[in-house]
Amino acid sequence: MALLPPAQTAELVEFACHLSDAAAAEILPLFRAGLTVENKGAKDYDPVTEADRAAEDAIRTLIARRFPDHGIFGEEYGRSEGSAPFVWVIDPIDGTRAFVCGLPVWSTLIGLLHEGRPVIGVMNQPFVGERFVAGPEQAYMETARGRTELAARGTDTLSAAIVSTTTSDLYTAPRQAAALSALRHKTRMIRYGTDAYAYALLAAGHIDIALDVAMAPYDIVALIPLIERAGGVVTTWDGEPADQGGDIVASASPALHAQVLEVLKGQS
Predict the structure, then answer these.
(1) Is 122:9 a contact under the CB 8 Å cutoff?
(2) Dihedral of alpha carbons 66, 70, 72, 77, sign
(3) In 107-254, which ranges are E strands?
(4) Does the annotation flag 169 for ligand binding?
(5) Is the CB of residue 237 less than 8 Å from the CB of residue 249?
(6) CB 3.0 to 4.6 Å from 69: which of 31, 84, 130, 249, for a disulfide?
């Protein structure tokens, strides 16, 4: 994969942040506002709101205007092919279930693939005023207090690790349920209900292991640069690249990740 020139990288990072601001302008007026919720799931409850769709519309419009040759893959409107080696992978509201409950753990995820590799990632939570940003060589968090460099805390012992996942209800396959149970008993503690926030907090040095099942690419692509630039590791449960989604796990250090994969492997 060719390296991006620094000036181009800076432009793309700035634009990704601009996209997250445009999404926030559509989403925030509808948060905790009693909006209509539809269920797009065929079997399970999978909510979607006008905020999800309006935010993705805004993002797509800006990308088409600025970079008409770039591809787009979004949760609500699928794929738009482009001729350039860039594809924007977007989830306008990750954590829509939290969003409709009024819980401020939802976020907007904006990732950029270059020649198939995640190079830029933004996770924005505008209600609490936190934005996590990563380019090819840096990762930081922006708040009203300024900018802080992201650094995973490097925990290398499973028994000392803090784990987070969205909900145990999604661990329906026997291997999945056994893996979650094993990690719960081998680690210090586990917390639920964090959606994409868990992966950003791992990059910021607050937790050590984040995992989920059946993730789509738009659930994880934006988070990969954040975790890797902060010194963490993120793969599938089988140790493969995470950018295509699936059962995903991230760890705060390579040593810890190796131990986690051994636990997951033992449940297959």
Answers:
(1) no
(2) positive
(3) 107-114, 117-125, 130-134, 139-143, 146-149, 162-165, 189-192, 209-215, 233-236, 246-251
(4) no
(5) yes
(6) 84
According to the annotation, is 247 in a ligand binding site?
no
The domain that holds 233 is classified in CATH as 3.40.190.80
Mean pLDDT by runs of 10 across the 268 residues of the chain is 84 98 98 89 83 97 98 97 97 96 97 97 98 95 97 97 96 95 97 96 98 98 98 98 98 98 86
183 and 139 assigned to the same domain? no
Measured distance CA(153)–CA(161) in Å, rounded: 10
Say whether 21 counts as a known binding-site residue: no
- Which among 58, 215, 41 is positioned nearest to 124, based on CA atoms? 58
Residue-range definition of the domain harbouring residue 114: 6-149
Give the closest residue to 152 by CA, choosing from 226, 235, 48, 222.
226
Q: Is 91 annotated to bind ligand? A: yes
Residues 6+ apart with CB under 8 A from 82: 67, 68, 69, 70, 71, 72
224 is in an annotated binding site: no
For the chain, the farthest-separated pair of C-alpha atoms sits apart, in whole angstroms, at: 51
pTM, whole model, 2 decimals? Answer: 0.95
The closest alpha carbon to 206, from 130, 93, 96, belongs to 130
